[in-house]
Amino acid sequence: MLPDSVGFEQRLARQRSALDVLDVTATAVLRRVPADVWCTVLIDPSTLLDTGGQNEAGFSPEYLPRLFEIEHVEADDPGNLRELANGASTTSLLSRATVGNIHSSKYYQDILRPQGLGDELRVALRDGPHVWGLLVMCREHGAAPFTDADEAAAARLGRPATAALRRSLLLSGVDTGAVPDAPGLVVVDREGTARSMSPTARTWLELLQDGSPEHARPLRAVAAAALASGMARSRALTRSGRWVALQAWSMGQEEEGLVAVSLSPPEPGELTAVILGAYGLSERERQITQHVMRGHSTTQIAGRLNISPHTVQDHLKSVFAKTGLGSRRALVADIFFRHYLPHFGEGPLSTDGRRLAG
User: Which of 318, 333, 335, 351 gives a 20 to 30 Å CA spacing to 8?
Assistant: First the structure.
């Protein structure tokens, strides 16, 4: 454990804004892993598209359109975000992703080299398959390379930062009830009584098998466990037999005795982003589109959804017909440039960080 990791986690616990969590994380990482250029990014876990961040110490603005194009539209360069999200590690080095041939990367050629930069270290703030944020760090060309120790230190700090970022989105995200499959938030006191709850949380609690929304037993149980250990998880059945996941966090010394609890489907990575509903896609078409957004191949999609590759292709043909787009690349580009880039960093976001339909 790093010498002041406890202090770092305490600083994280005091943050209520997702951007503040990213700033505290970047400060802590940069103290151990110096970089000449760096930026932080909020990620929509449903689509892996950018929803905001901090770029004051990052790339020059004139390079950002091409960066977005490489990252989200072409999405085929070694070490890209989707490759990192689908891999085993939460960190990546461009030099390693290119097997030592960094000059073969168009990201290096078009973004890094023109700005006098060399290698790049990325740290994904990821909980399982769900990426909530990204820290990007670069050093000038000719500077000392990032080391294994640098990467390990960044990864260690990324773990508590991920939990804090997820919590901050729950505490500050917009929840109007417009995202029926998104997590809802409840604040519970020491006695297990709900002090406040978002519209989506009330919807979930009303579906549970026992107790009123304000006194549901699963809610009280997970809140009590979080008070004892700082964080707790559980699942509960609805009256229809569907599972609901509950995740609880103690809200810290400033609000002693209060616990934040989120309620959501057990697999938030499979949630359908509301924005896809604007295209009139069926449930299966939206599932497949979301996998496309995450960079999954036809074979991978077929395996994850337990359908044949031929069926996947048939659904994709329907998606292309409904959207008026002719390829996966065009689909990702249309969603990003039409629905994300115009509102980059401005919100509104759902309670789990997803872009809400405008």
Answer: 351
CATH number, domain at 231? Answer: 3.30.450.20
pTM of the predicted model as reported, rounded to 2 decimal places: 0.86
Supply 354's token pair: 């997803």
Please state, in angstroms and rounded to a whole number, the distance separating the CA atoms of residues 166 and 351: 9
Q: Report the domain count for the chain.
A: 3
**120 lies in the same domain as 39:** yes
Q: Which residues pair with 40 in a beta bridge?
A: 54, 135
Where are the strands (E) in the chain, listed by range?
A: 37-44, 49-54, 91-93, 117-127, 130-140, 184-188, 194-197, 231-237, 243-250, 259-264
Of 139, 172, 205, which closes a domain? 172
- Residue 285 phi/psi, 5-degree rounding, is -65, -35
Together in a domain, 32 and 141: yes
Question: pLDDT tens digits for 276-330?
Answer: 667 888 889 988 998 999 899 999 999 999 999 999 999 999 999 999 998 999 9
